[in-house]
Every structure is written in C-alpha cells, then in structure tokens.
Amino acid sequence: MNNNIFPCFWYDENAKESAEFYCKVFNGKITADTPVVMNIELFGQKMMLLNGGPQFKKNASVSFMVICETEDEVDKYWNELMDGGMALMPLDSYSWSKKYGWLKDKYDVTWQIFLGENQTGQKIIPTLMFIHENNGKAMQAMKLYTNTFPNSRIGNILKYGDGSEGHPATEDPDHIQHAHFVIDNYSFFCMDNSYDHQFDFNEAISMVVMTDDQEQTDHYWNTLTSNGGRESMCGWLKDQFGFSWQIVPKRLIQLMSDPDPMKAQKVVQAMMRMQKIVIKDLEKAYNS
C-alpha cells in the first residue's frame, strides 16, 4: 500500500483529542504530534489531522469504509465510534453485507463499518459520494484519477441498474452504485447519489499526495486543476468535481523539519506565499 497518498481531516483545535480517540478505537499510533499537524497510523495507513480553524466542517460526501472480518469486529468499531456520534444507516443486515452500518462520529467523520471479504488489502478505504451537479460523474472522476496517477486501475463497478434487488427509482440505472478504483496502489470507493444532501465536497477532507520532484508535482497540479479545477494556496487545489487535494513535495517536509528553526521558518514563509509548491524557490528561501 502507498503511504505517499493519505487523507487529511480538518479540525478546529481538537485534532489531538481526535487522534488519540482513533488510535484507541483502531489500535493505532501517533507518528507526529505538533500544535497544527497530528499524523496517525491505523493498520499501517497514514492519516493527517490538521488544526485549521472553524472554516470547514467534515461531512458524509467523503466517508471511510472499514472492512471487517468478523461480526465481533464490526460491533467493536461500531460501538466505540458511536460514542457521542449518530447512526446514518443502522447497523443491520443488508443485501450487500450480513452486517453493515454507517455512522457519524463525535468529530463529524463518517464511517461505513462493513462485514465482508477484503479484496484490496487496505483496511480503511475512503469513499467519495458524487452528488448534486457531480451526480453521474463518478465514472468520469475515476477515469481522471486513474489516468493522472501511475499504478492505477478501475476495479469492480456495480451500476444501479445491475442490482439484483432492483435499484431505487430515484437513481439512474447507468449511474454508479458502488465502484472500486486504485491510484498509485491506494484504494478508493465511489458512488453516485441523486439525493439532495445538505453538503458536498469541501476542504474539511482532502487527499494529500507526496511527490518526489518538481516534474511530478507539476503533472499532478496541472492535471487536477484542468477543466474547471481551481488553484488554492500552499499546495492545495480543487479538481473539477470540487474535491480537494494537497500536492506536497517531500522536499518541503525535509526543509521544514530542519533543526535550524530560522531556516525552517523561512521555508514555511516562502510556502505560505505559494499556490503550487515550487521546490527551487523553497531551496532559495532555505539558503537565504
């Protein structure tokens, strides 16, 4: 599995508390502990928790599927994540799983707890919901993402019209009920949904992509901002579907972690002025 791609969750000052909570629930570990950024590892998967402020709230347009091998495991995660949370789909038996539920935890992160066979080797799988003007574009998004990144493929696709139990009348039979895709060896699920939810993609949940060099940085940045995407600040962008990515050269992290606080600070200040991260300008600031 690729730890150069991982989710980032936006918090208003409670990232540390949340990091400790998830590490307890999933028997994970904290790998970086700073006032702004917490990194945790759950089942060998990296996640970043960012104290960004009150601007953005997490919602169910991006949820996290946890694939469980036993009913006891489903019950454990469900019961612990429900502490202070709320059920969005009750824990029950469904056509796609003998035991499944969808919940929002007390930190507004949504989880789908699923009993079933894990065919990806990845325990926690981000799941993107394409709603409103994105409804019907899940296939287009999978093509964009798998064409942008190496070691990528589109896996199993279930369309609403394929379902044995008949699809909801509200959904277009050609739209995607559930699909699996991989970008650079990191698995995602996605779905189309016609329901008029009161939320959509925002910066509260983004995907971080660590890059090896400027060429890779430029390629991801240019491809993901094309056709209606938007450049933001400090390596952040929105793609044409409004989903947020952070394209971060590994060199930035090295320079920001320099033992000389003055040098590190100069790098941070240079980064704060950038949209796309330009490594040679970081180096120039570092050496200034």
UniProtKB/TrEMBL annotation:
It comes from the Bacteria. This is Glyoxalase superfamily enzyme, possibly 3-demethylubiquinone-9 3-methyltransferase. GO terms for biological process: methylation. Signal peptide: none annotated. InterPro entries: Glyas_Bleomycin-R_OHBP_Dase, PhnB-like. It comes from Chryseobacterium taichungense. Keywords: Methyltransferase, Transferase, Ubiquinone. One of its GO terms (molecular function) is methyltransferase activity. Residues 4-113, 122-248 form the PhnB-like domain.
